[in-house]
Amino acid sequence: MADLIAGMGTSHVPGVGAAMDNGKTDEAYWKPLFDGLKPLRAWHASNVPDVNIIVFNDHATSYSLDGYSTFTIGVGDHFEPADEGWGPRKVPNMKGHPELAWHIVEEVMAEDFDLAVAASLDLDHGFTVPLSIAYDQPDVWPTSVIPVCVNVIQHPLPTALRCFRLGQAIGRAVASFPKDMSVAIWGTGGLSHQLGGERVGVVNPEFDQMFMDNLTQDPMANTKLSHAEFIREAGCEGVEMIMWNVMRGALNTEVTEIYRFYHIPVSATAYGAIILENK
Question: Among the residues of 136-191, which ranges form H helices?
Fold first, then answer.
């Protein structure tokens, strides 16, 4: 059977990808961030799964606001970087895993989660930046991927609890996949940040750290947070943190926190990452 070995939560700040793409990682502004990623990358180098399920949101790149599903899963055999207005990132194309992806579709729909299905899906920084954070700049990504896109753009949004329950369903689906393989799941987005309006640039380290503490100590506490609480405490775009709940829901009740990193500022946002191994 497939084995879900670990989960990662990580911000997907586009500036991180731009810093890598443009050779700026050793500059004074960026060096503390990339130094903090070294232990994370070392863990990933020693724990490469066959497939990474990556929970992300599209930033109105592949989707327009007149057609944005609550949950979408990519079932294609490959995916390309999206053009976000200045050309696609020069990173490798991503290899999909249709067999496991369709198995997840069938299993979670049997649990009353109606997933939209996309065979063709270009993936923007919400997906490619986490890959770069984990694997740096390889010629070929070391794992296959399954994209799971969550609507955090167009209201109404799924609740934090709904995201956690989707993760639980995905975890059960992976466990029932009848082939021996290793799988990891990532939740991306956040942490606290706001990109416009009167509170532009807001960050909240206390809230961010509480949220990450809860991932290990009391994950159900994060499922009780309302959209209004996320927006009030973590900024308008901080609501992306609900995608970390999908990752946490897929894991076992008890996990081991392997690594945590938090850094401010990253393009006027708070960057956070955490690695959790299943017990």
Answer: 160-175
- Is 125 part of the annotated catalytic residue set? yes
Average pLDDT, the chain: 95
Number of helices (H) and strands (E) in the chain: give both, helices first.
10, 10
Annotated catalytic, 103?
A: no
From 12, 78, 125, 227, the catalytic residue: 125
Residue 66: CB atoms within 10 A of its CB come to: 6
Give the start-to-end residue ranges of the domains of the chain.
2-278
> Rg of the Cα trace of the chain?
17
User: Is the entire prediction scored with pTM above 0.85?
Assistant: yes
CATH number of 2-278: 3.40.830.10
**Looking at 59, 193, 227, 263, which residue is catalytic?**
193
Stretch 1-18: mean pLDDT? 96
Model pLDDT for residues 41-74, shown as the tens digit of each residue = 999 999 999 999 999 999 888 887 888 899 999 9
Residues 6+ apart with CB under 8 A from 112: none
